[in-house]
Amino acid sequence: MEHTQGIYTIQGIDVLDLAKQFGTPLYVYDGARIEQQIAKLKNAYAAADVKIKYAAKALTNISILKLMRKNSVGMEAVSLGEVHLALRAGYAPSEITFTPSGVDFSEIEEAVTLGLAINIDNLSTLQKFGARFGNTYPCGLRLNPNIMAGGNIKISTGHSNSKFGISVLQLSEILDLMKKYSIRISGLHIHTGSDIKETQAFLKTAEVLFEAANSFPDLRFLDFGSGFKVAYKEGDVVTDIQELGAKLTKAFNEFCNQYGRKLELWLEPGKFLVSESGTLLVQVNVVKLTPTVTFVGVNSGLNHLIRPMMYDAYHHIVNISNSTAPAKKYTVVGYICETDTFGSDRDLNEVREGDILAFKNAGAYGFSMASNYNSRPKPAEVLIVNGQAKLIREREKFEDLLKGQIEVDL
Ligand SMILES: *Cc1c(COP(=O)(O)O)cnc(C)c1O
């Protein structure tokens, strides 16, 4: 979103016009911003054979998946639902990596039938996989590197008490199963968590991966996961992608030389690709003065954007309807009937009822975590490509709330 002379635009389109045309609450995604992020990542890792797999759970709209495919980005899926969306978006099964957490073995069997790349995340599944498929179908392993990193404990996945991956401390058990069933391990995967800002944490994880990799002779790829931190507010320290890319590809190429074969370097960014592309537009329902706080109540809530309440996430908020007025302090809250704060003590240009507010960086884990809590319909979604706004999801209606419900005679 650009801001000049009091007007907010995306690719030249006045954002207020979008709110008028499509209504609010509304998720708007800037396709060009997503393409910029893809280019930035490819550029930073250009020194290696890098394959970018978009972690679909961040923003799963099929038109977004198609945009990724158009930009030669592969797909990282954590459920068969995401897999089938990716197939519908035109992906070949081999371009989809399936990295589920603790799923029933039937899902792994379906992934084999479909022909996906699979990362197995526990010894019990690896044992079943070996017994069922032996050396007939290669698989990857999700390892737990035993490292604590990430912005919040809920999104830190690589520490020793995390449920994710097979601990690197259980390497000998992995090797026993591999030998017993002649399993072909084609790749090793590590995803340490989200919102990791220190380059050093990524490099430390990489070292763990390299060390483990020496025990696997059939590798084709090493998957370094994701977790790149993006700026949610001004001055936020973020992952230096250029520096990390340079250092990691260097270490990776050195490892490949020592390993004796060129491998592919896989990355699985979600947030990095889509977070900054997204804006949630809401309308101010009420301005409520209390003796201590001025609340701004908007026509959305944690049902549409749960990150502030769930992860203490900061989303920058701007009043795009009155952007030249003097700023005042406000606490912006949703309409859900429990504490539902988007931002406390924020400086906003004077807010009037009916104004449109924009929550920035709402592309990742925004709509994809939205619910119908309080029986509120989900927002519409709009994607802006080539200077044109395209509706990519209808606003839900009352009938959608009843869908699937069975009214019995009582
Ligand atoms: C969620 C997830 C990602 C993406 O994480 P971001 O922080 O959004 O980049 C990547 N890989 C796996 C396996 C994941 O579960």
Overview of the structural elements:
This protein folds into 2 domains: 2-28 and 275-402, Lyase, Ornithine Decarboxylase, Chain A, domain 1 (Beta Barrel), CATH 2.40.37.10; 31-273, Alanine racemase (TIM Barrel), CATH 3.20.20. It is built from 12 helices and 21 strands. It has helices spanning 15-22, 31-44, 62-70, 80-88, 105-114, 123-133, 171-181, 199-213, 241-259, 271-274, 307-311, 398-402; strands spanning 2-4, 7-10, 13-14, 26-30, 50-55, 74-77, 96-98, 117-120, 139-144, 166-167, 185-189, 221-223, 264-267, 278-289, 294-298, 317-319, 327-333, 341-349, 356-359, 380-385, 388-393. Strands 4, 14, 15, 16, 17, 18, 19, 20 and 21 form a 9-stranded mixed beta sheet that branches. An 8-stranded parallel β-barrel has the order 5-6-7-8-9-11-12-13, surrounded by 5 helices. Strands 1-2-3 form a 3-stranded antiparallel beta sheet. Helix 4 (80-88) links the parallel strand 6 (74-77) and strand 7. It is globular, with a radius of gyration of 23 Å. The structure holds pyridoxal-5'-phosphate. Pyridoxal-5'-phosphate binds at residues 55, 57-58, 76, 78, 99, 191, 194, 225-227, 268-272, 364.
Distinctive features:
binds pyridoxal-5'-phosphate; Lyase, Ornithine Decarboxylase, Chain A, domain 1; TIM Barrel; 2 domains; 410 residues; eight-stranded parallel β-barrel; alpha/beta; 12 helices; nine-stranded mixed sheet
